[in-house]
Amino acid sequence: MEAIIEDDVIPMLQHHPDFTSYHFAFDPQNVQGPIQKGITYILKVYRIGLLMPMRILFILTSVLSFVVGWIYDQHYKLTVYQKKWLGKFACNLILSSVGGHVRYHDKENRPKAPGFIIINHMSPTDAFPIYVDVELTDDSLFHVTGQKGKGIVKLFQIVVGCIMPTYWVNRHKASERKVFLNKILEIAKTDGLILLFPEGYCSNNRRTLQFRKAIFVDNVDVYPIAYKQTSKYNDIFWWEDDFPSFLFRQITSFGLIYDIYYLPKLNKLPEEKEEDFAYRASTVISDKLETTPSVWGGEHIYKKANKQKAKKDIQTVIYKVYSKKFKFTATNNNNMIGSESTLI
């Protein structure tokens, strides 16, 4: 059974094949001939020497914009229009920092408060393309949600929270998850738009992971949005073990092409179960991606990896304990043998 799950899920948690083949072709170590090698080295210098400094400047300007806006808001109070304008400006800079080019489709299906916005999840930057396309004349702000981050991710979440309403949760704590769920359901049913990634884990856009059923309840509007990337020049999927490595790959990439499709609003049918509604929503997004939804979630792989790491740590501790014990025993035995030899 585990092998079946892994065969289904693992291909969604690896680099997209288009990116892998294109990246391989432009690696200096994989080409032959002085001209070809020269071209690949020139491109590498161009990406690291020119694109990276410019994109770092975009990121710093974006962060500064959020911070300055927050400071101003503490004294003079920004209007909803001003917050949206500042958010669009800063998010545009973030997209520029990864060489993003976004094409929006079917704008007549744009989300309207209240309700949930659900998107297939690829990276920590998924909220920014949607915010770039918000209507300034609309009086509502949508709320960004996600897993609590660490290090740079945590810092960035704090910065974004200066202007955008945000809710971060530690999904490993049941009590925190319950409070979080009640809060976002209340907002989505009354007056706000909640941006949510029901997969819970990032995937590489080849398929959608299983959607969690918690928000797919009665009396709430659900607005599905499909993200489709062209993976040839860059893969926005976060597969690295740490965020700095992911960020370095993004700011040194050739660029990123997005197609974003606004899909018609969904509602739970009277006799429909929550898990069935969740699967229907994932199917709607998958159809636009020209693929099929998976019935398995990312936790089947990630939690297994955590268990294996814990098991390995335990084995390391046991090994150290027994190593000391055996060393102590061997030392005592040697001393005893030495004593006996002396007596002899």
Automatic annotation (TrEMBL):
Database matches in InterPro entries: Plipid/glycerol_acylTrfase
**Which compartments is it annotated to reside in?**
Membrane
> What is a single Pfam family found in this protein's UniProt entry?
Acyltransferase
Record carries keyword Metal-binding: no
Keywords, alphabetical: Acyltransferase, Lipid metabolism, Membrane, Transferase, Transmembrane, Transmembrane helix
Top-rank lineage group of the source organism? Eukaryota
Please give the Gene Ontology molecular function terms for this protein. glycerol-3-phosphate O-acyltransferase activity
Q: Which residues cross the membrane?
A: 54-72
Which Gene Ontology terms of cellular component type are present?
endoplasmic reticulum; membrane
Q: Which residues form the Phospholipid/glycerol acyltransferase domain?
A: 115-230
Share an example GO biological-process annotation for this protein.
Answer: triglyceride biosynthetic process
Question: What is the first-listed, main subcellular location in coarse terms?
Answer: membrane
Task: Family membership, please give it.
Answer: Belongs to the 1-acyl-sn-glycerol-3-phosphate acyltransferase family.
This protein is called what? PlsC domain-containing protein
Species: Parastrongyloides trichosuri
